Amino acid sequence: MNEMTKLTAKDFATDQEVRWCPGCGDYAVLKAVQRTMPEIGARPESTVFVSGIGCSSRFPYYMETYGFHTIHGRAPTFATGIKLANPGLDVWIITGDGDALSIGGNHTMHLLRRNLDCQVLLFNNEIYGLTKGQYSPTSRVGTRSPSTPFGSVDRPASPCAFALGSGARFVARGIDVHKNLPEVLKAAHRHKGASFVEIYQNCIVYNDDVFAPFTAKENAGNQLWLGADQPMLFANGAKGLALDAEALTLKVVEVEGGDWEAAGVIVHNPRNRSIAHMLVEMPFGIFPTALGVIYEDPAPTFESAVVEQNRTASLGKNADLQALVSKGQTWMVNSEPHSI
Amino acid sequence: MATATHYLTPEESNAHPPLEAVVVRFAGDSGDGMQLTGGQFTLSTALAGNDLATFPDFPAEIRAPQGTTFGVSAFQINFGSSAVDTAGDSPDVLVAMNPAALKTNVADLKPGGLIIADVGEFGARNLAKAGYDANPLEDDSLAKWQLLAFNISQLTLDAVKPFGLGNKEALRCKNMWTLGLALWMFDRDRKPIEDWLRTKFAKAPELAEANIAALDAGHAYGETAEIGGQVHQHHIDPAPAAPGLYRTITGAEAISLGLVAGAQLAGLPMFFGGYPITPASAILHHLSRLKEYGVTTFQAEDEIAAIGSAIGAAYAGSLGVTSSSGPGIALKAEAMGLAIMTELPLVIINSQRGGPSTGLPTKTEQSDLYQAVYGRNGDAPMPVIAARSPADAFDCAIEACRIAVQYMTPVMLLTDGYIANAAEPWKVPRMDGYAPFPVAFHDEPPAEGESVNPYKRDEKLARVWIRPGTPGLMHRIGGIEKNVGTGHIDYSPDNHQTMTDIRAAKVMGVADGVPEQEIELGEAGGRLAVVGWGSTFGPIHQAVRRARGRGADVSHIHIRHIWPMPRNLGDMLRSYDRVIVPEMNKGQLKTVLRDQYLVDARPVTKVSGQPFKIAEIEAAIEEALG
Predict the structure, then answer these.
(1) I need a surface site. Which of A33, B290, B358, B524 has the fewest CB within 10 A?
(2) B275 and chain A: CB distance < 8 Å anywhere?
(3) B20 at interface of A, judged by CB pairs closer than 8 A
């Protein structure tokens, strides 16, 4: 395959039989990613998919790229080594709510704060699928599962709030089956640094329709798709988000006749971290679900800083091994040893 | 242990320990700078051409409460004019900077040995903190030793007065005063220490000069004071050593340099992922300063991330290295399994310390052998090698790199807290004397109609190493069992059997490429073999040498390749009537030897956090010989 070959989604599919449950949201995400690859100019040989453990972590086996299916929760650590060893590789981390926020929460936090240049796709289905249906760290209070037959009692983590709190410079959301997902993936890929994407993914077996209140066709009015410099409108433009300046919170306002300015609807500035925090923590029901690129404010990447420091620290020095071992306070023994 | 750098004549090998060896222990509060004093005395000793071995022994607390017995930090050095193998059983000279240091160390001092004590610190408060009812310097409790007590604190204050330091700062120069006296006692040159002080305090010249003044004052005190005839100058002749360039080296330094050398011999950049832990951190520190050698270091968020990043880097084509101590190695175990399953090269260094759990962070032990050989889920074979001394750690690190890249496997290198911190003279090797083992990455795409097989193997059973970025060789690897022929996921019974057998055979095959086991002292077929591994080399070697000097039929065998073991080891062990295995654990190598060779290996164990004394092993030899 030479550089000029025009690739298609098919070129990024392996011959391996995909083994998710029929109807699983993962199929839609796989298709979206495979479709996105040629559009962003990805080359199979320089792309690496790294995953941990869980249903979503089977993903690399279905991508005709390099792939590393690692251990539970630790994908970010392998990705860090890969990227530091070869910053030219395009690294995608595929993870789930249990993998990234429960067993691997620590690594997710550090990957994001370091700003390693990679894409993190967190498939959030609010349940443990592969281990057969236990509740997860994003499950809502009261979730009944084999390990919580009377309902879970602990409060869930919010992936995007966690990402922002960890210092992520790119936070976005998408929906497995939504047509906008490739656009979100492209934006994530465009961003230099750690791009965190939460994908609402339906688990048809253990948590079916948990996101239907905003993902179902008839509930599309509860989706707020954000666009840079665009007013925050939803419900077909009939509603919008405004700032309650006194309470320092967001509020939902009615938009009459398309005059969003009159309604006080605010314009999305992806660099506004405070608004990003509000957008990811809006309680659903009163508010819509914020989708698309919620926050983006690029900063130098970890691997570029490491490479630069390695370079400057090496300036003017040569890697003479003999000189290295001979360093320090040395002495010569000249005479042949005598016997006692 | 300097036998590697010495020509030992048979007479010398079998001689009783030479009289021209002296053991000095510096002991004081952990804030008194005893490790620094010891380190500088070591340097001056090395420059004087003596062979030497050291034993730094310090508390886990950074600054334990002043004056307490648990806050005592000590540094022991054994130096002499012939081969020195251990830091010495019992000191000839004890420098005690306060009552707690005296209390915790004096029992080790040889009868008739010399105590040098700082009277200035023997006030009521410090005596009480150390648990003394009466001042031991003033009653007869120290009668079996020689006592030299004077006010080092005051003498130091007087010496540095011209530099206008505050009282606290001025007293910090006490260690240099003491060092000055010690340098006089052993007829040592002060110049290298002065140079070192001027470099160390380049930004505060008054501190450098004050410390030098203290050093000179201590030296002058020895020269001029009338010290009651107890102390006189010793001159220890240089030890016979092979001609060449020498330096002192600690195990942590030697491992760092050996890894750099190993990466260069393999023709690879090195990636080191580490997480701070005592006593392994020094390796991370050393390597962090060697970026021009193609070394990238990464201080990860935890032990798991440290090994994960190293495996990731190995996958991407670097020499991946991670390092820790027992508790951290435990955390890395799952990732080691992944490296075994995906057959990626990786060097894992375990600087062992006392365990289990947090155990004794700053004390030495060899109790992670089971962990290294057996400590993973599944049938997860991994080569294990063990360094016997600081200088030996250099070659062991290179050997670990070689095995890792030639067999596509993680390798564990065992060292311990003693080796990591202790220093010894090292004959600087000629690097062109090491055979390179260049890595050839697989970069040929499969023929038309064939698919990529990442588990294609060579005659060593090592799989191909394909770097991401290589066109036409895209493939997926992971922790799930893979098909022997295609590398795709395969759970089928026969395939798992085959792959498990291949992984085991590959690792056992490492023995084909390692030298046959040698006998350090003695010959095969005798009455008793003393088998050791790791840092027990020194005491075992000396004990066997002494026993042989008395005519005992005993041999010393020391194993570097713990897993797999050298091909001839079984026959060698079976040729002896008896086998004893001294180790600083409850008998771990003993178990492996029994399992592998059905020999009646008997354990000699010690887990006090302190190295074996020569005398302890001599006693074990006598007992075994009846």
Answers:
(1) B358
(2) no
(3) no
